[in-house]
Amino acid sequence: MSATEAVPTTDERERRPGPGGPAAGGGFAVLAERLALPTAWLAVIVIYSATTPDTFLRWSNVSNILGSQAVLLMLALAALMPSLVGDFDLSLGGIMGLTATVIAKLNIQHGVDIVTAGVAGMLVALVAGALNGLFVVVCDTNALIVTLGMGSVFTGVIFWLTENNTLIGIDPALSQWTFTTGLATIPLEFFYGVGVMLLIWYVTSFTPLGLRALFVGQSREVARLSGIRVARIRIGGFILGGFIAGLAGVLFLGTTGSADPTATAPYLLPAYAAVFLGATSIKPGRFNAIGTGVAVYFLATGVNGLQLLGAKNYVQQLFYGAALVAAVVLSRQLRRR
Amino acid sequence: MRFGSFCALKDVDFRVERGEIVGLLGENGCGKSTLVKVLAGVNVPDEGGSLWLSGRQVPLPLLPGQFRDLGLSFVHQDLGLARTLTVAENLVFAETASAKSRRTINWRREVRRIEHLLGSYRVNVDPQAPINQLPPVGQALVAIVRAAEELKAYRERADVPQSILFLDEPTVFLPENEVEFLFDLVRTIVREGASAVFISHDLGAVRALCDRAVVLRDGELVGEAAIDAVTDRELIDMIVGSASGKLVGRAHRPAGGTGPAAATMCEVDGLRGGRVRGVDLAVRSAEIVGIAGLLGSGAEDIPYLCFGSRRSDSGVLTVGGRRLRLPRMRPFDAVRAGVALVPADRRRDGIAPTLTVAENTTILVNERYTRFGRLQARRLGDLVQRLLEKFDVRPRRPDARLGELSGGNQQRVVLAKWLEIDPRLLLLHEPTQGVDIAARAEIYRLVREAAAGGMATLWVSSDFEELATVCDRVLVMADGVVRAELTGDEVREDAISAAVYYYSTTAASVLSDPGGHE
């Protein structure tokens, strides 16, 4: 199963009848679709600014939205990697938690300095991603099933390592490098996330490697018959996904200052929600980095405003789910026309 | 049965008697499958045809599924079985689906019953085995048993006076020595009171099974005869047409070394894999070599084996002086060696429909258009524009999604993409399938032009007119080996066709000179 199947926009495009060629749809419809999500984001901002002007627009709230979502942004970018090449990785939340746990365990319980512990943690993330690639691509199995299993394995290891306790007392230097230091009061980790996003955007949009990955993701058999080494690119997707999920784990550790064995798992579904939501925008029908970033912050802004208006915690789940379903359904309807 | 005019059928008058097995013979595109599709209710015939069953006229067109009420049952080439389900599940499902049964299924009893049922047809397969774990002949037998049970159910209904089994080329993928199992089963079914129509282009099979042969050509009935009263040569003449003469091609001689001065560009030695059982061939620089053969002859496997997209068991490909061991070769190696493949299944293998024309056209060469690793958008844009002009792709919109273009334009893009790497060897499989006539002529011209630059071309097609039009030389394959080679003025449609049917017939081994066979 490829991840693209989950995005209804891709195959719908080819069925769209094109009398007089694809231009018949009109440039406006295309542009409207591309910019639907950023426009919705803008609309949300305007509405909240009007309803709660003194809290929502305050700089502390803005920097809070930007900073607090850096971990999610990073994990969404991790989820983007296998998605780009047509795969799925449901173990990324597990890899993120495992990385945080390994670093915390080494640093707190074994007194390893934070840099060495960090490198060790990232190596674990790379190995975890490579294992996914090995099982899914080399052994030719269903990515959804295998990574679901691997995610459970990683979670089991997390509980084993932490003995079910939250590991507290991480080297404050890590928090300084990620969360407590800010640029214009926005935590540094936000800029790390944006940096990774821009890097992915550049590589996917402007390099031959990015185009090859695109072919693998959209038409695997055609890619293979065009002499593209499909297996390598897919394994690369899993390894990079694991690596970036590891980075998300580092940011998580820096943000919370502790490794809570239960705290990372709930990040996975919002991350995928952002990836799919992002695929309906900017470059509709394609998974793309900018769309993913916009989606993360659209969702965060929406939830933040509702909370300021007095909504309870469950509103986050409601909003994320509803926004994703609405976006996917709408973009499909738009094409049916 | 009587038929009037159909799109692909003109005044086909065709009877089936009770308890008779009729062989329906003809070339590709002669109207065999149209006939079947009309009866299955898939195709709608033109006005004016009529269908008589057991003396009663049935109004045309037939509705889909109406064939059940008419006592017809079909076994298509793909068999139509659920491949991951077991034999028993497939057979039980067929019964319950038609009977609209609501009762729950007692599987232990059903499996015992199916075992008994298979035994009564003397079919030896395990009812609990999944279909995809059976050998091909076992799968075919299960499909036919299922059809036989359908026919039996028809006969039990008072309102259906006839039961006719249609077998649409069921033997193509079966090993020759196992075909007899299938024939035995068909004979058993007919003894029980059904009739059968056996559609094939294998004379040997028709002769072994059928009582009477009916031959279609160009949608017309060109002959029928009791099978004992007609020779193979007479049947071939009916299938291929009057002009065929006795020209069936010279026995295969090793290519290369015998022809004009041009250097050999590409050589295939000892190729085995898929249905190919040992092929050697050579293509000279600038030469277009056609490969003709019926489905199952191995011709359709050659391009994929030579490209490394399907694993071969043995064989060496030499391209422009480079030796590549085929069992270890991947498409990646093929492309690097300058081998290009235009596959038959364009929508699945040829184009990325969701990506743009520009992306599809330049995927093989975009690495040449980079600066410090970054794609040079302007130079790439110029290239795409030039290619769209040269290959006359319409609309000339590089950012259109390729899936939205017509089949002909899609194929132009596929050709543009491959010819841009200046391949040494171009492998084409049914390159004009689903392509309009204008694009077809254009494809011939473009390949010829590229070939003139020194490229070697292997062109596999079931369209013999096409091969006659574009090829310098045509190899005829049957049973996984090259049986004949047509050169010079032998490269004509009728000659190719005659050679293909001649060598595909089991009886050919008796008629032909011994030199032509392994």
Written overview of the protein:
The complex is a heterodimer of chains A (337) and B (518). By secondary structure, chain A is an all-alpha fold. Chain A has one domain: ABC transporter involved in vitamin B12 uptake, BtuC (Orthogonal Bundle). In chain A, 74% of the residues lie in helices and 2% in strands. Chain A is built from 17 helices and four strands. Chain A has a two-stranded antiparallel ribbon. A two-stranded antiparallel sheet of chain A has the order 2-3. In chain A, strand 2 (182-183) and strand 3 form a beta hairpin. The longest helix of chain A is centred in the C-terminal third of the chain and has 27 residues, at 230-256. Chain A is globular. In chain B, strand 16 (370-371) and strand 17 (374-375) form a beta hairpin. Chain B has helices at residues 32-40, 87-99, 107-120, 136-156, 179-191, 203-209, 232-240, 302-307, 331-336, 346-350, 357-362, 377-390, 407-419, 437-452, 464-470, 493-504, 508-511, and strands at residues 21-25, 51-53, 56-58, 72-75, 164-168, 195-200, 212-217, 220-226, 250-251, 264-273, 276-284, 288-292, 314-319, 322-325, 339-342, 370-371, 374-375, 425-429, 456-460, 473-478, 481-487. Chain B contains 17 helices and 21 strands. The two termini of chain B are 43 Å apart. A seven-stranded mixed beta sheet of chain B has the order 9-21-20-12-19-18-15. Residues 1-8, 243-259 and 507-518 of chain B have low confidence and may be disordered. By secondary structure, chain B is of the alpha/beta class.
Rg from alpha-carbon coordinates of chain B: 25 Å
Q: How many domains of chain B?
A: 3
Tell me the β content of chain A: under 5%
**Oligomerization state of this entry?**
heterodimer
Please state the CA-atom Rg of chain A, rounded to the nearest Å. 20 Å
Main β-sheet of chain B, in a few words?
Answer: 7 strands, mixed
Number of strands of chain A: 4
Number of E-state strands of chain B: 21
CATH fold call of chain A: ABC transporter involved in vitamin B12 uptake, BtuC
Averaged pLDDT of chain B, please? 83
Largest interface (CB within 8 Å) is between: A-B, 29 and 36 residues
The CATH homologous superfamily of the largest domain in chain B: P-loop containing nucleotide triphosphate hydrolases
What is the top-level CATH class of chain A? Mainly Alpha
**Helix fraction of chain B?**
25-40%
The secondary-structure class of chain A comes to mainly alpha
Q: Provide the helix percentage of chain A.
A: over 70%
Total helix count of chain A? 17
Q: Give the N-terminus to C-terminus distance of chain A in angstroms.
A: 28 Å
Strand order of the largest sheet of chain B: 9-21-20-12-19-18-15
Uncertain ranges of chain B: 1-8, 243-259, 507-518
